[in-house]
Amino acid sequence: MSAAPTLVVIGGGPRGTGVIERIAANAPELYGDSPLDIHLVDPHPAGGGRIWRPDQSPLLWMNSMAEDVTMFTDDTVELAGPVVDGPALHAWAEGVRAGRVTPDAEPAVLAEIHGLTGQTFPSRRLQSAYLRWTYRRALAALPPTVTVHEHRTTALAVTGPRGGRQRVRLKDRTEPLLADLVVLTVGHLDAEPDPEQAELSAFAARHGLIHLPPDFTADTDLSALPAGEPVIVRGFGLAFVDLMVLLTEGRGGRHENGVYVPSGQEPVLYVGSRRGVPYHSKIGYTWTGERPPPPRYLTPRWADGLLGRPGPLDFRRDVWPLVAKELGHAHYHRLFTAHPERTALEFEVFEAKYAAADPGSPELDGLVAAAVPDPADRLDLAALDRPLDGTTYESPEALQDGLRAYITDDLTRRHDPGHSADLAVFVGLLSAYAQLVRLGDIGGWWHGFFSYLASGPPGPRLEQLLALSRAGIVRFLGASVTVTADEERGLFRATSPTVPGARTEARALVEARLPDPSLRHTASPLLRTLYEGGAAVTDTGLLAVDPADSRVLDRDGTPHPRRFALGPFTTARNSGAFTRPRTGGPAFRQNDDAARAALAFLRDLSCRDRLASRAAAPAPVPPPPPLPRTPPCR
Where are the transmembrane segments (predicted)? Predict the structure, then answer.
């Protein structure tokens, strides 16, 4: 009797958990009761993986409310496999409180769960408990003939012929795992320094300075940053928010009624970026009234048409104009239906003229100006993207006042249902992502813009930022920040055209951002070996995968029959392994497609092995009848 087929999943975070959940959901149809060995490889606890591991500071939050987080499919997800309902995070917490759910959680996390509401921004360690429970539920749903083996170690390489078993080399094991199929769900990547970062690190080493390159803030040793000293921070997104929290509250400071009370252990953070402003606050209210319309322009037919065109896509030329028009349609549909008193035209008339106008045309601008009298009610994506372009301040102090006013206005608007067209744009962004993920590598700008507008920090974090600014712990640098190394003085220097002539000097520089997801610069020996072994990568370094089922593409464009990859390092990158309920999360569809392809391959492989075993038998023994749920060999 031949051994059971073997599937190795490398990466035990939410994406790996999602793949196993889909294997459990699809196995009755596609695999039945045949035996299967699954090996899950990750040095961190399965379920949360590295990013959502339980041993994190309780000060680190998710940037989504509990009611906006789910690991489970629903009828809005385009699936070939079955929908398997499950609780969103807040409903799971209700189950814990009611005694229906028993989580694997420390007492402090249990206490947090008991205080959780749908509008709470949970800690990451609470999310870790939810993900661990989801993982265990997925294991329990697997057929009894499927065995899962966990390996708390790092995968170093995947090798092997296209037509044979793959060899997965592990850090703490002499013999490799032999796999009939391998699925890579390793999440975000560490990276080797690019030339600029290498030069800055070398400069810091020569002069005894501190340079912290792009990294996961929770994994960075911040102890070297001295109290009271200036630190230049390049990056104003979610990595900065984590940095801000760990260097203030994490060093004993506290927030009291909108005022920050320092401990005296904080450095002074001088922060700037390309935009010069923080990511927009999460919207602080929920949808009411008429449901948002389905995509009007970014339809599957539109995506099919783009994919059928010869030559590479240019995002700004071929994609962005219609994305902008789709977001505008979402914005104005909500404005006209929910706030008609602020419009000057019947919506049916506006919608017809809007549909006929070319994206970005003077006709479209004129239509909007005539139909929407208040400029604050119009959607200006360029101004949203780069709000400080063309703006200058006469002094650093004037910039501090200006940025505090900007952040305050953003907080006010994002928590005011009177501006619910902003929420419609957010929903439109999610719909756009679901279509754009089909287009493969469209460059990094879109992903950055999406995160800036739709995946920003909780409102309370921006309130804390304002308090830290008023306390002088955080200082704003402006937009288009340039950092140079002064060899003569042995200092880092930051300048910005937002405040002409101003400069900030410091002995410490922190790059507050994640490494780029490029296989060409990855520090992962696993993915480096994959790249060197012939896997295709795009111009930006993303691993190329087949959009149909996430099989890894070789450099001739051929899908590898035994290797799959899902996650932000691939051309099928999307907004996250989990998402808001009832928003058709594309990651769920990708997980389902990959799981079904994997099960079909393993089923057929098992059939070939069984048939070959019967053919080699010494006497023709009639095979036993198949179990009721076992698909027949084909």
Answer: none
